[in-house]
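Chapter review: from sequence to fold.
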Amino acid sequence: MTEIINQKHYDLEERTFKFAKRVRQFIKKLPKNLNNYEDSSQLVRASGSVGANYIEANESISKKDFILRIKISRKEAKESRYWLELVDINNNSNLEIERKELINESTELMKIFSAIMRKCQ
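The C-alpha cell string follows.
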C-alpha cells in the first residue's frame, strides 16, 4: 500500500522514529516522582506506537488496513501530546522549551496523518 502515499514514506518513518527517541531522551531529564513515572510510561508507549503503526500501514494488505493504521498513528500522536502536557517539569525552563518542541512535533505528525487519511478516502 506504499503507493497510496508519496515516495517519501521512509522520511516519515525516520521522523516518527526520531520523535520517539527524542521523547525518551526528554523523559530521562524529568524529575523523578510517582506522577512522572506513570505518565512517562504512557508517553513512551504512545510515542513509539506512532511510528510502529506507520510502518504497519506501509506493509498493509489492503487500503482499509492502511487507513486504519494511519488513523491509529494519528491517535497515538494525539495521545503523546496529551502525556507531554501532563508530565511534571517542576518549572524548569529548559524542559519547558523541549516539551513545547515535542508537543509541536506531535501536532505536526497529527496533521500529516490527517492529510494522508483525507487523500486516501
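Two observations follow directly from the output. The helical segments are 9-29, 34-58, 63-86, 93-120. The two ends are 14 Å apart (CA to CA).
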